[in-house]
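During the reporting period, our protein records have gained a structure token line. One record among many is quoted in full directly below:
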Amino acid sequence: MTPLTQTNPHFFTGNYAPLTEEHDLAALDIEGTLPPGLSGSLYRVGPSPQYAPRDDHYHWFSGDGMVHAFHIDAGKVSYRNRWARTPKWQLEHDAGRALFGTFGNPATSDPLAQGRNGGTANTSMLWHGERLFALEESHQPFELDAHTLASKGHQSFGDRIDSRCTAHPKQDPESGELHFFAYSPDGPCSPTMLYGAMDRHCKVTQRRTFTAPYASMAHDFMLTRGHVLFPVTPLTLSMERAMRGKPLLAWDASLRTHVGVMQRDSNANAAPALRWFDTDACHVFHVMNAWDEGDTIVAYVMQSDTAPGLPDAEGRPGEPGAMAARLCRWTFDTGSADNTFRREYLDDLAAEFPRIDERSTGRRNRYGFYTCHATPRLRDDSESVLYDSLARFDFDTGERTLHTLPEGDVVSEPVFVPRTPDAAEGDGWLLAVAWRARQQRSDLLVFDATDLAAGAVAVARLPHRVPFGFHGTWRPNVRANAQQRP
């Protein structure tokens, strides 16, 4: 492997550095007792680049995806990790060096990469239609075997997803439909967007395109029973800017933030009718949930003043305090002629990676879970995504409960697992991976989601580290589900 010594060394030190080995561990050491009913697999994914990048503007977001699987059953945990062997990974593996510039920047890519698939499959995991996918929003979903993690390749679903797809699809808990979107489906930096849906068997049933106010990296979106909402923030994309040696992806504070609202029951064969709401420039990477209340749509999001970790159009770093996201409520009045929307912060802690009990997707949720810093302090940009605490927020009472790790440790996004299929909302388990800074390795943590402050009920210890990553998903064992049903 080429030494990782580029001009942005922060993303190659500590637990940002890539993991270069693939492991198969039959049984991890367990501290505490795993819940008897917890049976299934937790999948997590994040960047683990094979080779040192080619350009000075390398960003963590563009590393090769590595999937980590924790298989849990009968009080035991096994572990396996594999690179997603994407066409990019294979092309560079054969060449023995990096070929693609950051975010596929043509100005810094090798001629061998011209016109080739640069997907990384490094952002999120999806279990849908009894199939496992690693997602990254600039390319098609990448399928893997749920048990071996063997790569099966990018999937087009009958040529209905032919360019790119969000890393944050939303599954309707009643219909089982999966709703998805994409930005710039007509080519890099185009101001178009795509919306679609597939049934519970992965058959695409809707696919519609529309034009956004400008080309933006739209990372997440919102789904309610009656609407789909598309945030477009000033995190802009510009090929012309990139060819001048400036960042392809950059914050433009002169623009406003827009949200397109579309009715779900509109004619799927007609051009979508969107109403665009707007507000002063602000940014959202991740949505917790959204729902309808009569003529009002309410959403919980993680909002910051500018995009965390990304520069302005001249390549200058942003202000760290402005990059800190916090839990915020957005309210849209579809019955009013006013096209602005209301924003109200609900928490004072810098936070990210929100999750819910996904049986409440698109419906009003009482509980939300997220990573955060234990105190409301400003952090420098390099630390802004390294959170030391997990939070449980009760939206009925406004009460926030925390569990904070020892100093220097970092916790991943939590993934919620219901205690039983018919358990009350929020009654279940939270699974997260912790980086143990002093020991230079990682643990899988299992919490009772109703008593987060009590600490982990079980800890599965890895002998190595899991590099900092992004998102995960849970795949329940069919046998466990059958046993839990009355």
